[in-house]
Design brief:
By secondary structure, the chain is an alpha/beta fold. It is 44% helix and 20% strand. It starts with 12 loop residues before the first helix and ends with a helix. It is found in: Cell membrane.
Length: 492
């Protein structure tokens, strides 16, 4: 008799038999259905949940067991990818300003085949590691807008820190500029003051929509932890911003964070040139998904754009709307092709098996691999899950630098040798690979790698390198929690 079925006196034999049959039916069907098109670790995690708690496990699987968007959204993403490919057909990457290894060009080809976006020369890039300076730069760009302002952020909040930016949006709309705003529904709704933010947006001429909304009463339903995690601002198609920064104060409007002095550390990039148009196309796809209004035909691409700089850029969108995990495949390629050094900054490091092998293999063949993380994360389960990987990667030779608490190092970027840099919204975790819509930007040429390295040097200067032997002596209860949380991360 199964332990889940209570042995109540007086339960009819027919009901008891029916429950046993249901129990075994769920388990047998799970074996044949769940492993399909899932990673073995994810399939095993779901099977364990269903085998231990069949009814509850099945209910959870039906709720969050699929990481794909509905058919309509998926087909629209495929259409946008084909559209971008057709619009830029015949556009070849010319590495005119610098010499790069052949593998970098192959990486660009991989991204092109997965998402449709080509690499484009002639971009000028400004980096903003300072939180307030980044917000000020975006505010100034909005003040200078003449035609359109397109805003897309995972978290959006009108507060004392971001108020100047939103006031600039209002002024832009009042002078005839089209202002569109997208924000993730659940990502923003869980932030204190969401009602006031929504009221502010409604009281002005700003066009705004929730991304991936959840409202069963309006037939808005999907797996609730599928999120749009992108951070994009595009001004007149000429200038764009992207990176890790959300539109919210540095303490994320939490009393505990104010009390302990916890603030987020970000990195934002300003792009001027063809990359702005590529980011506008990403916005256009998300705007169409939520409104049905197409902006794609009005987006200029590459040969129609000015080329004010010397950096080649390529936008890499990823997420459940794509058939492949675009960011994961690209990141793996970086690790396997790095020759001397690869530096990774990620607040949430919960890799899948392929990325873990790629990272440790790079270190074992002599590449200097370093990982920047927070000393103490802001999310309990994710923080413990990522700690479970530290010992294995340090044994392989990876150096881990922990940014001092109470700060949260939320920046997300990579540098590889002297060849390329990557910045964007994507973390190194299974959520960013499978569940979140993300956007990253590949950057090659000019002095972008040295400038990114300077940011990394700043992290290293204030961080503490984790010692393997000391880490092995950490309390057993902490190790236990690390392993438990690591298991739950496989339920994708």
């Amino acid at each position: 008799m199964q332990w889940l079925i209570p042995n109540f006196d007086g339960m009819p034999d027919e009901l008891r038999v029916a429950l046993v049959v249901l129990d075994y039916t769920i388990r047998i069907l799970a074996i044949g259905i769940i492993p399909g098109r899932r990673r073995p670790v994810a399939a095993m995690a779901w099977l364990l949940a269903i085998f231990f708690i069949p009814i509850v496990g099945l209910a959870l699987f039906l709720l969050i067991g699929t990481n794909k968007l509905n058919e309509k959204r998926t087909k629209e993403q495929e259409r946008i990818t084909r559209y971008v490919m057709d619009r830029s057909k015949g556009f070849e990457v010319h590495w005119t300003e610098f010499n790069v290894d052949e593998w970098v060009q192959r990486a660009a080809e991989l991204n092109r085949n997965l998402s449709g976006f080509p690499a484009a020369d002639g971009n000028e890039i400004t980096l903003y590691p300072d939180y307030i300076e980044a917000l000020d730069a975006m505010t100034q760009a909005v003040e200078e807008a003449e035609d359109s302002v397109n805003v897309e952020f995972y978290i959006l909040s009108v507060d004392s820190t971001t108020q100047p930016f939103f006031d600039a949006l209002v002024r832009a709309s009042e002078r005839g500029v089209t202002v569109r705003v997208l924000y993730d529904h659940l990502g923003s709704a869980r932030v204190h003051g969401y009602g006031q933010t929504k009221k502010f947006l409604k009281s002005n001429k700003i066009q705004f929509r929730r991304m991936l909304p959840i409202n069963p009463f309006r037939n808005e339903w999907r797996r609730p932890d599928l999120r749009n995690h992108r951070k994009i601002l595009v001004i007149d198609q000429e200038v764009a911003f992207s990176g890790s920064l959300n539109l919210i104060e540095r303490e994320y409007r939490k009393k505990k964070n104010h009390r302990i002095g916890r603030q987020w550390v970000e990195l934002l990039a300003r792009f001027e040139g063809p990359n702005a148009a590529e980011l506008k196309m990403v916005f256009a796809a998300d705007w169409y998904a939520e409104t049905g209004e197409s902006l794609a035909d009005g987006v200029k691409l590459h040969d129609e754009m000015d080329t004010p700089g010397d950096v080649t850029c390529q936008v890499i969108p990823s997420g459940p709307g794509y058939a492949n995990e675009n960011n994961l495949r690209f990141f793996n390629m970086l690790f396997y092709n790095a020759k001397e050094r690869i530096s990774v900054t990620s607040p949430y490091f919960v890799p899948d098996e392929s990325l873990l092998v790629a990272m440790t293999t790079a270190a074992q063949r002599g590449v200097d691999v370093e990982l920047f993380v927070s000393e103490k994360g802001d999310q309990f389960m994710v923080d413990h899950a990522q700690r479970s990987y530290y010992e294995a990667i340090m044994e392989a030779g990876v150096k881990i630098y922990r940014y001092p608490a109470p700060y949260v190092l939320h920046a997300k970027h990579i540098t590889v040798d002297d060849d390329l840099a990557v910045i964007g919204s994507s973390n190194m975790d299974q959520r960013s690979f499978s569940l979140n819509a993300e956007v990253s930007v590949l950057m090659v040429g000019g002095d972008i790698v040295p400038r990114m390295r300077k940011v990394e040097d700043g992290y290293r200067a204030v961080s503490t390198q984790l010692d393997l032997e000391e880490w092995r002596k950490r309390p057993r209860i902490g190790r236990f929690m690390d392993n438990v949380c690591r298991l739950t991360s496989g339920l994708q």
